[in-house]
Design a protein that fits this description.
about 280 residues; alpha/beta; Rossmann fold; four-stranded antiparallel β-sheet
């Protein structure tokens, strides 16, 4: 089945990007004027008894709109902790994380919840699909929690499932899907609110090599065709070097290296769009 990439229009008939939400989206001038995300001297320390564990230690990093960034590092390097900080799932002990000019470390809990709802999509190593719900019900759940009008929900669920090529499996429950299909369903659920940034924490960790490669190819398509910013934690350097356009390596909570990945930028993206 081929993916159908849909176009959205506002009430005035002007074309809107896929990730249009109630939150204003930056125009081209705004996007080029500065980074989408600016982490400045970010640290996250945990207390364990009398000891302080520096999971993330004084990291500064800028990420621009439309990048596909892979965070690499060994177990305990701080990459998942740093991802959670950028996604607003945790707060830094010190430092600042600015997303579109808002400091996530300083905003109140309600505004942080809106950031996670309107700006962020999350994909984890575990698929986290509810077993008693069909795939379309799982994908619809974020829309229900966001109180999106019922009349709009069905079209957005269909569009998200079309993007991951699971439209024909919408009435199946998770147990009736393969591991790769379940992860694609989790990606559809992350896309349904039309986020600006998609965070993926070890999205291929529970998959075999063939399905893992297919998931990375799908993320690359989403980044290329939708212009979405993707930040992914992975320990699989070969896959990251094939698909991510930038490689950031962490070690012992510190930023070790940050390099563009020209090889991935030249990698052709399979465009499944039905014209």
């Amino acid at each position: 089945m081929r993916t159908q990439f849909r176009t959205y229009y506002n009430r005035s008939g002007h074309r809107m990007p896929f990730n249009s939400t109630s939150e204003p989206q930056p125009n081209a001038a705004q996007a080029s004027s500065g980074p989408l995300i600016h982490a400045q001297n970010v640290s996250r320390h945990y207390r364990l008894g009398d000891s302080i564990i520096p999971a993330v230690n004084d990291i500064s990093l800028e990420i621009r709109t439309g990048e596909f960034v892979a965070l690499l590092g060994s177990s305990g390097s701080g990459k998942s902790t740093f991802l959670n900080l950028l996604a607003g799932l945790d707060r830094p002990t010190s430092g600042a994380i600015h997303v579109r000019g808002r400091n996530l470390a300083a905003i109140d809990p309600m505004e942080l919840a809106r950031y996670r709802r309107d700006t962020v999509g999350m994909v984890f190593q575990s698929f986290n699909l509810l077993p008693r719900m069909t795939l379309e019900e799982n994908v619809e759940l974020p829309l229900r929690l966001a109180e999106v009008e019922r009349a709009e929900r069905a079209a957005r669920v269909r569009s998200a499932l079309d993007h991951v090529r699971l439209g024909a499996r919408s009435r199946h429950r998770p147990a009736e899907l393969s591991g790769g299909e379940q992860q694609r369903g989790a990606i559809a659920r992350a896309l349904v609110n039309r986020p600006t940034i998609l965070f993926a924490d070890e999205p291929t960790g529970n998959l075999d090599s063939v399905n893992g490669e297919q998931i990375l190819q799908l993320l690359r398509e989403i980044q290329s065709n939708l212009g979405m910013t993707i930040i992914m934690v992975t320990h699989e350097r070969p896959l990251a070097e094939r698909f991510a356009t930038r490689i950031v390596t962490l070690g012992d909570g510190h930023l070790k290296s940050d390099t563009p990945n020209a090889a991935a930028e030249l990698q052709p993206v399979i465009d499944e769009t039905r014209r």
